[in-house]
């Protein structure tokens, strides 16, 4: 009887070990993914803001306001629901 | 955070403050979207019209060509990646030329047209728009060399100032667009139809990449679509691929692939199908679709013989050849 319980415990530990290893692998996979702002086809990119401000200040670049855009309240930014062409 | 949504191209980037759009050059500063390359071109050249390529639009004329940094597509085989895949802040070369100065430069160089080209002019839309307006008033024509990845309302608005476009149709396949260019096909087809509806002279370029978009049945479908939606007189340019940027694993397009594609598109009903990037190829030249007479002979970008009548007709049979000739 005690021997059977001992083996059941052993199986539980094996299962826990397997789960832990799987979690480590999932964690490694997520960590290895590129920053979403730099992914190809993503919706925006990080920019070297300090360099940009320097070059704007020097007049190398322009702060001309664009057309064809609108402001979006931050709360609505969660969950992108607009598809291409809309 | 003052996020903004750019409505210019089908990406419709949601850009937080201090971030740039996918194009790298439209930046949200203080809750306002800035066109950071407005009046700051990174490339200015004088080219022959044939280099755009535009074969049925003022042949042999000089075109003042301008580009800024940035692009809203990310083609693995981009030939201008040092210009297109960078933001303005990382460019060494930044000239200063407001729209009126640009038009004056074109006039000084005796250019009758300005081409917005090299990278994609969609991403410097405001600069194009304002320059086009002044150029038009000065009697200079505007030529838009693009991949056509733009939303319809801004394009339709711009079309009132445009005279001609060569639009890259990279493949007649949405999957190809997603995998090779980081875009989608539908908006490009919509852009081509918008150009046609708005009376802009349209020529189409298709770069043939071995094994990726050289399938003849796809080429036939593309040619049929062009004939149906844009007209069978629409010039189609097949261009030869050269391995570069992130696509060095494929060979240059074989000559017979270009020949077969040209034959397929002619058989599908298009009247003027060209082969580019292969100097001396018979597909560099313009022939009468009725009697096959040589109308304009070209070697590369150079016109070596011009037999087209002043009225834009074949001098032998009188067939009108679609285009804007003078
Ligand atoms: Zn003829």
How would you portray this structure in words?
The complex is a heterodimer of chains A (86) and B (326). Chain A has helices at residues 2-32, 49-57, 74-77; strands at residues 44-45, 69-71. Chain A has 86 residues and is mainly alpha-helical. Chain A is rod-shaped, with a radius of gyration of 26 Å. Chain B has 326 residues and is α/β, with parallel strands linked by helices. Chain B has one domain (38-284): Aldolase class I (TIM Barrel, Alpha-Beta Barrel). In chain B, helix 4 links the parallel strand 9 and strand 10 (164-168). In chain B, helix 2 (99-108) packs across helix 3 (125-137) and helix 7 crosses helix 8. Chain B is globular and about 65 Å long. The model of chain B has no long low-confidence stretch (mean pLDDT 96). The chains are: A mainly alpha (86), B alpha/beta (326). At the A-B interface, strand 1, helix 2 and strand 2 of A face strand 1, strand 2, strand 3, strand 4 and strand 5 of B. Strand 1 of chain A pairs antiparallel with strand 3 of chain B, so a sheet runs across the interface. The site of zinc ion has 8 residues of chain B, from loops.
């Amino acid at each position: 009887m005690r021997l059977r319980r001992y083996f059941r415990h052993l199986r539980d530990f094996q299962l826990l070990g397997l789960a832990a290893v799987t979690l480590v692998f999932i964690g490694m996979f997520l960590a290895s993914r590129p920053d979403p702002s730099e992914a190809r086809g993503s919706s925006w990119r990080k920019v070297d803001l300090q360099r940009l401000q320097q070059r704007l200040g020097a007049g190398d670049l322009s702060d001309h306001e664009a057309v064809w855009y609108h402001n979006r309240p931050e709360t609505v930014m969660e969950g992108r629901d607009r598809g291409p062409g809309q | 955070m003052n996020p903004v949504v750019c409505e210019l191209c089908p990406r419709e980037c949601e850009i937080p403050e201090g971030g740039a759009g996918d194009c790298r050059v439209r930046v949200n500063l203080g809750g306002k979207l800035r066109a950071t390359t407005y009046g700051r071109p990174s490339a200015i050249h004088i080219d022959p019209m044939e280099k755009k390529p535009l074969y049925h639009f003022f042949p042999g004329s000089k075109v003042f060509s301008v580009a800024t940094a940035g692009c809203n597509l990310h083609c693995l085989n981009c030939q201008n990646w040092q210009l297109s895949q960078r933001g303005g802040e990382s460019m060494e070369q930044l000239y200063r030329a407001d729209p009126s100065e640009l038009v004056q430069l074109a006039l000084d160089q005796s250019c009758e047209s300005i081409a917005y080209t090299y990278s994609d002019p969609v991403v410097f839309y405001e600069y194009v728009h304002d320059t086009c307006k002044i150029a038009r008033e000065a009697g200079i024509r505007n030529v838009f060399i693009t991949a056509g990845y733009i939303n319809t309302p801004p394009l339709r608005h711009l079309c009132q100032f445009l005279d001609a476009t060569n639009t890259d149709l990279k493949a007649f396949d949405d999957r190809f667009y997603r995998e090779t260019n980081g875009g989608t096909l539908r908006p490009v087809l919509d852009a081509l139809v918008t150009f046609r509806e708005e009376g802009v002279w349209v020529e189409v370029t298709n770069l043939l990449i071995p094994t990726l978009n050289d399938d003849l049945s796809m080429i036939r479908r593309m040619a049929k679509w062009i004939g149906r939606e844009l007209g069978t007189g629409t010039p189609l340019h097949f261009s030869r691929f050269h391995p570069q940027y992130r696509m060095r694993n494929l060979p240059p397009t074989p000559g017979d692939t270009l020949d077969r594609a040209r034959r397929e598109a002619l058989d599908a009903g298009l009247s003027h199908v060209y082969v580019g990037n292969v100097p001396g190829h018979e597909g560099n030249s313009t022939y009468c679709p009725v009697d096959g007479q040589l109308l304009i002979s070209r070697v590369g970008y150079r016109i070596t013989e011009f037999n087209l009548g002043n009225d834009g007709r074949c001098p032998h049979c009188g067939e009108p050849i679609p285009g804007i000739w003078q």
